[in-house]
Design a protein that fits this description.
The chain is of the alpha+beta class. It contains 15 helices and 16 strands. The structure holds histidyl-adenosine monophosphate.
Amino acid sequence: MLQKPKGTQDFYGESGYNYLNLTKYIENFMELYNYEYIKTPMFESSELFKRGVGESTDIVNKETYDFKDKGERNLTLKPEETASVVRAFIENKIYAENEVSKFFYITPCFRYERPQSGRFREFNQYGVEVFGSDSPYMDAEVILIAYKLLNNLGIKNLKVKINSLGNEESRKKYREALVEYFKDKIDSLCETCQERYKTNPLRILDCKVDQNNEVLKNAPKTIFYLDEESNKFFEDVKNILSFNEIPFEIDTNLVRGLDYYTHTVFEIVSDDSLAICGGGRYNNLVKELGGPVVPAVGFACGIERILKILKDMDKDKKGNKIDIYIMNLFDTNETFNLLNSLRDSGFITETDFKVKSMKSLWKQVEKYNPNYVVMLGEDEIKGGYLTVKDNLTKESIQIERENAEEYFDMNF
Ligand code: HAM
């Protein structure tokens, strides 16, 4: 039998309903903050992620789905959205339109990771990217959006962990400190980290193999290498978050698995499971990918991880969503006509395109649990009326066919 690829999922029925519901919720929520929707291609040139996310990151080094198309172009299914949005920002000269541009997206991403609970090879990210603001209020706004959205969904025990990597100068000093620290400890690192020591020592700190290695735990912390400007920026972000009652804790080990971050980095977890959300500021990426100097900040949340938490909380039950069920008892043509006219008037209406017995149609009613059941049999059609049953009170009345829309308008 043909099967879906490992690490992918089918969404249908309840899971399809929950997925769509969450994305609708996100869309409405983002309107409040005046963020514009952005959609970029599912694949990009491989070069973009090598330069954007970083060649020595696990994501680019081990996890991308790379392929050549028939024109011998090197392409990659996007493992994340930030690099793509930056590419679009530069290519479409969006920077020339407004001083500040704010985007949100909901998009599939692809990473060849070992599948486990909450970790897939195809997954969906909801995220935001803001360009053109170097204000610490923008870092706070972005963190606040992620926190409030998750909190409003009812997710408990949210923990916002933040750290700062500082500006270019601070990062340089920190890199030197790491090189010095690991100099006589290289043998205690995994093979990949021994390579990372030469290419990108910061990446050693988010190694999945060496995670519990004491040498890593005792490594120098970024915040002790922040210069005055970076320190002030971090203090400002923390003060704004506190003033606005967004609970957070400082995690000096947080460096994130992508190369582009400067200053603020953050993650949101619930009950210490996998991160639901990760993000931060990236003031150099637009320039590094060929654009002007434009500061930026953003985050991405894993949709599947949010859905899983909501499911574990039993919060994702598919509710009653059918307004009217028409029992097709005599003539499908008449039923189809009524169905469309009720739908045109804005009622969520269902029926069966086969004329069936009363008994089997009541089974359908049980399945759909509508607010109203309309019986459309021979008598109703010939008499030009409908028998309407309130599915809660079980009371029935007869109404003129031509008054049906008005009747339901008054009752919904
Ligand atoms: P990231 O931490 O790699 O950051 O991914 C963001 C979120 O995507 C994670 O917190 C997690 O919820 C979800 N995620 C990642 N990998 C998987 C997976 N294999 N299966 C299921 N969910 C997953 C980024 O991607 C950055 N682009 C975030 C960002 C935006 N930074 C600035 N702007």
